[in-house]
Design a protein that fits this description.
Blueprint (H helix, E strand, L loop, with lengths): L1 H15 L6 H10 L1 H4 L3 E6 L2 E6 L2 H8 L2 H11 L6 E6 L7
Parallel strand pairs: 2-3
Antiparallel strand pairs: 1-2
Helix pairs in contact: 2-5
């Protein structure tokens, strides 16, 4: 299974190569997994920083603790270097 996973990641990375700066945005769901991807959204990438919208402060705090793990996964998936991840509150979920 490990071999299949690494092969799939290589195929995905090769597919994202032409996407350039959009690659980290598209790679986020694979880097974080489907459960996290269903509750978060990569919203921008600039200057090596991937910005990810999260539902609330608890999610932000928990995901900040996993940042290094996500950066390692993104380094295998995206040709664009992601140096850090900025977790921001999803404005559409905030009270009006």
């Amino acid at each position: 299974m490990q071999r299949a996973t690494s092969t799939l990641k290589k195929i995905f990375a090769d597919t994202l190569r032409p996407e350039g700066a959009k690659a980290p945005l598209m790679a986020w769901p694979l880097a974080c997994g489907s459960k996290i991807a269903n509750r978060t959204q990569a919203v921008s990438y600039a200057g090596g920083v991937l910005t990810v919208a999260v539902p609330d402060r608890t999610w932000r705090h928990q995901l900040q603790g996993l940042e290094q793990q996500y950066l390692a996964a993104l380094s295998h998936l995206s040709v664009e270097k992601v140096n850090s991840i900025k977790f921001v509150l999803n404005r559409s979920d905030s009270p009006r």
